[in-house]
Specification:
Length: 73
């Protein structure tokens, strides 16, 4: 993976669908995580989204694995 790949911020339609599915799955857990309670909802959502995008960029494309990794991180 090149630096250019990691810096990209545009995703195609298939990647966007994967991210959307993964976000919905992960958010059901992340929204109630007591460790993240100090953060407001917008901060938790944007943090989760950034995390999922980074994981997708390194090659994970399965929405369930993506969501599980996002939850763990």
């Amino acid at each position: 993976m090149t630096t250019l790949d990691m810096d990209r911020s545009i995703f195609d339609a298939a990647e966007t669908a994967i991210l959307s599915t993964a976000f919905e799955k992960a958010w059901t857990y992340v929204q109630f995580d007591p460790a993240l309670e100090p953060l407001d909802v917008d901060q938790r959502q944007s943090g989760l989204a950034r995390c999922l995008m980074a994981i997708l960029k390194v090659g994970e494309s399965d929405p369930v694995c993506l969501a599980n990794t996002g939850i763990a991180l």
